[in-house]
Specification:
This protein is an alpha/beta fold. Helix content is 37%, strand content 14%. The chain is built from 13 helices and 15 strands. A 7-stranded mixed sheet has the order 4-10-9-8-7-5-6, with helices on both faces. Strand 14 and strand 15 form a beta hairpin. The longest helix is centred in the C-terminal third of the chain and has 22 residues, at 303-324. The protein is globular.
């Protein structure tokens, strides 16, 4: 039996010193190296038992009584307060429910309405040109509905694109393709100094790194819960409305759940106070309570410790890729600088690799990822040539990282 490599020995030492290592036992995992938590987080072990109770007792026995007796009615705000510390927000500013897309729409239209309270001439929405496609689609629809012009620019171009016409700016905290972390504090300050309202998409940062919504003066933010928050497939998203702006938040989707008197059944709409006005209709209770159970893995966890491990994991992965993978086979698209990196590494397959592996015109990155998955290393790929690896510090270890890089080297060699 061959001796373990120096990097394998290093991985053992890093795992032995890992203060978050015990959290791994709180997830349902197997021998697969799971590096796709930036798409769907692993199942927290507490969720199945909790859902058994929700379905059999709360729904099966208590039925309608559970809206009061099991706390179903207050779940959107209660679970929002569980998420709040993970994104740097005080309680009472986050409501959970609906999808990310629906919450982006609410936030963006409300942002335009806020900006026009003091300047009716603001008629432009600036959107991250590199954003996840749905954000772009929603921004385009919001622009049409509000009579705005849509202006796509890269995040680096945002400060120069701002003007007296800018009403709202929609940005991603972390780029979903490359893992690049954008400068939320500086961009928020620039947008607000220009009299516009910043809306942040936190899908690829919440649960992976400190966000600091309150500290940095963010007005509105949205995010999903099925990635680093491990809420399950299709788990509800959330909407953050800064406390001092809540009375001005005019949702384009008013519903009975956000009414000041939800059971008054009045024909006229009066928005409820606080973050509740971000609600629309009856929430998806089963998914919401699964999320609540999943969030228990965060008890006693510091987001700063998560960030420190995330950077250590991604640093070590790049070190292992450099050592193991044949030169020129892949190149990293993710910034080396810590202040510009989220919690994923994106590797581009080189033309040299494409020439050696391409079969029948199939995407080479896709073929490489299929081979990796077959060998027990799960990531994903984005056409045409990008391999994505997400590092969830609560359950990914340094031994996983070393193994993933070693298998990648075997696949492309």
């Amino acid at each position: 039996m061959s001796e373990p490599s120096e990097l394998a020995v290093k991985a053992e030492k890093l795992d032995a010193a890992d203060e978050l290592a015990a959290k791994r036992s709180e997830f349902v995992l197997d021998d697969v190296v799971y590096l796709d938590g930036n798409s769907l987080g692993a199942l927290p072990a507490a969720v199945p038992g909790r859902m058994e109770d929700v379905v059999r007792r709360q729904w099966g026995s208590l039925r309608i009584r559970s809206w009061d007796e099991s706390g179903w009615w207050t779940a959107p705000e209660r679970i929002g307060d569980r998420i709040a510390p993970l994104v740097g927000a005080a309680p009472g500013q986050i409501v959970v429910g609906d999808s990310t897309s629906v919450n982006v729409f609410k936030a963006l239209v409300a942002a335009v309405r806020m900006a026009r309270e003091t300047d009716a001439g603001r008629d432009e929405i600036v959107v991250d040109a590199t954003t996840f496609p749905t954000d772009g689609y929603i921004a385009g629809s919001a622009a049409r509905m509000t009579g705005c012009t849509l202006r796509p620019v890269t995040p680096a171009e945002v400060p120069g694109a701002l003007s007296g016409r800018t009403a709202a700016v929609l940005l991603n905290h972390v780029d979903y393709r490359t893992g690049r972390l954008h400068d939320l504090p500086a961009l928020t300050a620039a947008v607000h100094a220009a009299g516009a309202v910043a809306v942040w998409d936190l899908c690829h940062s919440a649960g992976a790194l400190p966000v600091g919504l309150d500290e940095h003066g963010v007005a509105l933010a949205v995010g999903c819960t099925y990635k680093y928050l491990n809420g399950g497939p299709g788990s509800p998203a959330y909407l953050y409305v800064r406390r001092e702006l809540q009375d001005r938040f005019d949702s384009p989707l008013p519903g009975w759940n956000s009414h000041a008197e939800p059971f008054g059944m009045r024909s006229d709409y009066e928005a409820a106070p606080g973050a509740v006005r971000g609600r629309v209709g009856t929430p998806d209770i089963l998914s919401m309570l699964a999320l609540e159970a999943a969030l228990e893995v965060w008890d006693g966890v510091s987001i700063d410790a998560v960030r420190a491990k995330s950077l250590a994991l991604t640093d070590f992965f790049l070190e292992c890729v450099t050592a193991y993978v044949p030169p020129g086979a892949v190149e990293s698209l993710t910034p080396v600088a810590h202040e510009e990196r989220g919690s994923q590494i994106a590797l581009r397959c080189s033309p040299k690799l494409s020439a050696s592996l391409e079969q029948g015109g199939a995407p080479v990155a896709g073929d490489v990822m299929k081979r990796l998955i077959a060998a027990g290393v799960v990531g994903d790929f984005r056409p045409p040539d990008v391999l994505r690896f997400g590092f969830t510090p609560l359950y990914v270890g340094f031994g996983d990282v070393e193994r993933a890089a070693r298998v990648l080297a075997e696949v492309v060699a």
